[in-house]
UniProtKB/TrEMBL annotation:
PANTHER family: ARGINASE. It holds the Pfam family Arginase. The keyword Flavoprotein does not apply. It comes from Porites lobata. Pathway: Nitrogen metabolism; urea cycle; L-ornithine and urea from L-arginine: step 1/1. It catalyses: L-arginine + H2O = urea + L-ornithine. Its EC number is 3.5.3.1. CDD domains: Arginase. This is Arginase. Binds 2 manganese ions per subunit.
Amino acid sequence: MNCPRLLHWIKAPTHVVRLYHSRKHKELFLIGVPFAGGQASTEQPRKGLEKGPASLRQHGLVNNITKLGFTVSDFGELEVPLTDTENHNYITSGTTLKNSLECGTVAHKLSEEVAKATKQGKISLTIGGDHSIAVGTVYGHATVRKNSCLLWIDAHMDINTPSTSLSGNIHGMPLSFLIKGVPEFAQPPGYEWCSPCLSPKDVAYIGLRDIEPQEREICDELGIAAYTIDDIDKVGIGEVIQKALETINPRGDRPIHVSYDIDSLDPKEAPSTGTPVKGGLTLDEGIYIAQMVAETGCLSAIDMVEFNPAIGSEEEVTRTAMNTMELINILLGKKSHLTEAPLPPVDENKVDVNNGVVN
Ligand SMILES: [Mn+2]
């Protein structure tokens, strides 16, 4: 197993309410958002993020979900504006905010679709595109499921405000639009419809390793539960996911929104992404998080973002697509290989079962 860290096995808390197998949750709303305006890079290697949804479909996404027993209401792809012009840049506190109007408009349309699906009792699965679209999915979901909570799985904190961002890329800011108590900023064009809908205690991060100091400050000030790769190294993924879920969903009765940025995975597992950071989650750790969320029975919305099929070799693109889809499958209840992994047989030549290791 390609896993430098031991998985610490922890069973799901027994008090968890298992809503998962109720009939209404077997309906899934799928929407692709072929949008990359929140990354706004003109660098050639980063172009192509908008092709993520189509690539996952080509790799069999819908078929996989259907095989898990879901009825899929497939919206297809959301219509998005072009962002390859510099016309809509918005300047705030010295930062040039890129594609603000387009990012805000896409997120608004998306929020309405996710809200509609959530009202109909469907799990929504949104495929990006860049992470700026989560402003729409989280807002749309949380306005219908008012007691929902959010698990943000990412290498980055994505909580810069339009005033603190150094890059002006909105995919590094979505949480600043969503969480109450973030330092105030002037609402940029495109975001007039949106207001914070989650409390800091409703949110937990897992997988962090590329943290900007000003983001850390906001996060610490608000007291958001933030689990870094260091934390996983120290205590194991089992304890980290258990603590994260206990923080945001202590009684096991709140709808969970999972916003999964595939750059949370190590670049070996997900090379086709625009802002890779080494030392990330192993695939087994990513799967374990997904499995523990599935076992709560509370999963209600998923974002899967930042897969860029224009980055890397054909093999790397396929690897990233397959791993991304595996995370989706496990979230939706597929049994992982971790569940049924048998213990290795005892080698009696090496181990004396009564007295421990003999050589
Ligand atoms: Mn992100």
